[in-house]
Amino acid sequence: MSEKLKVGILGGTGMVGQRFISLLDNHPWFEVTTIAASPRSAGRTYEEAVRGRWKLDKPMPEAVKNIVVMDVNQVEEVASKVDFVFSAVDMTKEEIKKIEEEYAKTETPVVSNNSAHRWTPDVPMVVPEINPEHMEVIKYQKERLGTKRGFVAVKPNCSIQSYAPVLTAWKEFEPYEVVATTYQAISGAGKTFKEWPEMIENIIPYIGGEEEKSEKEPLRIWGHIDDQKKQIVPAESPKITCQCIRVPVLNGHTAAVFVKFKKNPTKEQLVEALRNYKGVPQELELPSAPKQFIQYLEEDNRPQVHMDVNFENGMGISVGRIREDSVYDWKFVGLSHNTVRGAAGGAVLCAELLKAQGYITKK
């Protein structure tokens, strides 16, 4: 027990905070010892603080029920009790930027689910199977912050997980133009149907800020570190245009995607590239890494949320319906679990990678 790294969850009472707590129950490397949230939750046990608001099907882990919730704004006090923190705080973007850097300056690594720092030039935004080398920009961030072990690392938006890994697996065929429409679950807004009855039998063709993230964030993931500028420079291709639609599904973001390639792959080559694609998490056998990162389903009616969203415990990507297109070259449908791979699970995998790379250690 004492060998495990002590973890704090910032914003531990919200839906993503709850998902962190659920995923970290009995984790082989990490142990949740501290939970911090808004002042209104502080001073109560975690069980009391979320009474009637636990949103997951899986029951609350016994190990966290009696942890007394701390005030997330008491940065020094919270940081003194942990080796690193996961951030899922519900604040304005500027407040999140400020508080995450305050934690980093206490020499506490921050692995964030939030979007606030995704475009901070020296903050790595990582899907561990795609761009693990971006963690190397942390050395420049530490120079800026004046820290020895404190930094901020983030994972990208949940909506891109259903197609960015696919396009990465197809890099050798040089995709250069992409049209994507994402059909996004309500848990992406931190809601359940009980809390959002208007979504039952409804579709909303707008999710604030989501289309810009969906078009731009993959390019940052495919970018490179510029050692002279001490920052990550985004890639310029492929061009992506996106629409994001909220649909009456609890968990699982689906994407319908059209792609133009400079090279001319066959369907067999596309499928083989997906099935063979793996990254550093698979090579290192990190605890949360899916053994099969991307699965291809041959049936015409797959992937389906009900059947496929929990593939590889929600950490895998499911793809189907690869077929030639009359306007673009090829099209496909992708599916990912938005609060596991797309949120808390993706951040946990980032933390495992950071530990394996030596960035997160015991204080």
Automatic annotation (TrEMBL):
Classification via Pfam families: Semialdhyde_dh, Semialdhyde_dhC
Active-site residues, record numbering mapped to chain: C158, H253
GO BP, one annotated term: threonine biosynthetic process
CDD domains noted in UniProt: ASADH_C_arch_fung_like, ScASADH_like_N
SMART domains per record: Semialdhyde_dh
Keyword NADP attached: yes
GO molecular function annotations of the record: aspartate-semialdehyde dehydrogenase activity; NAD binding; NADP binding; protein dimerization activity
Tree of life domain: Bacteria
Domain Semialdehyde dehydrogenase NAD-binding: 6-138
UniProt xrefs under InterPro entries: ASADH-related, Asp_semi-ald_DH_pep-lack, NAD(P)-bd_dom_sf, Semialdehyde_DH_NAD-bd, Semialdhyde_DH_dimer_dom
Keywords: NADP, Oxidoreductase
Family, per entry: Belongs to the aspartate-semialdehyde dehydrogenase family.
Name of the protein: Aspartate-semialdehyde dehydrogenase
Organism: Lachnobacterium bovis DSM 14045
